[in-house]
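Please annotate this fold before class:
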Amino acid sequence: MAYSWGWGSLAFQKEHLTWGDHYHAPNILDIRQNTPSYPMVALNINTGNRLSFHYHHGWLNSMEVREVLEFDDHPDRYEYHNKFFAGNILTIMPLDGLHLSAGNSIVYSANNMYIGNFIPFMLFRSLEPSQADQSTGQVNNTMVYLNASSRQIRHLHLYASWFTNSFVAERVVDSDRTNYNSTKVGARLSNWPVPDTDFTFEYTFTRPKTFEHRTPIITYAHKNFNMGHYLGANANDLYASVGVQPWRGLSLRLCYNRAQKGNLYPHAYDGGQDVDPYMEEVAWRNTSYTLEARYTLYNNIGIYARVRLMHIEGFDVTSDQVDYDQAQDYLDKFSPRFHHGETTTISFGFYMR
């Protein structure tokens, strides 16, 4: 349900969203078709070619049990801790082909929603002192993010995005400490030097504890699905592809993807949260090659066929400061058993855009 006017709209919706430029996977907000969406109230403002703004307040599922409700002759039911999300992102276009975005968000848990988080243009971290009321049981986790996209060079799209949920300037110059951030860089070269062909490169690296929180009810997640980059903390993701359109309606794409996860570090409550090294050891790796063909039958309706070769590996880790140390533990946590090792997956079907 939505109401719109010349330069904006207000909607009550349950929608899939992505924030951050990407061709493979975003690292700011990733609520795509393969992850659960959540109900929200959303404000969109678009003043033309130079400025746009999005805000929404959403109702998340914490999946953390607060109370077990018992009923005679009926299965027990669970009452979960409340969990809410509020976020905004502002995009300006100072030059033709250049988009610069910045925003911030908050995940909070409380007995009731907090009215301050319904202010669309708010810097949510500034509200933390007024929200820190133990009588309401409210706890908060705030995030900041940036995105840049440039199409100023003909045929070339350059983009980068950055997300943090804990940043301290002193950590930048201290080699023994690390901020909790995720960084993505990418580029796509289109229609040059070969017409109807594109070449894409995208790389993401995410440091330990990013998207996480030592208080489970305010992680950057909905129904235990991470809302940032799909790999989560302490990971890197390399993606490259070549696409070609040999004739109208038909597109072919060959993709390479190497996704890696490092050690899983526990959350400490006595300090030392920011000293875990990035990718000290590789604990899990997925290397895949994908060939996909799509053919548009009519307007936005088409058929597709895909062949994917994957090799998923787990590795023992030697660090004693981790939650898991066996290869099988990492395999079971990050991938289903039928994909372990070398596999070939063939899929085909219809699609609507």
About this structure: The chain has a mean pLDDT of 91. The longest helix spans residues 327-334.
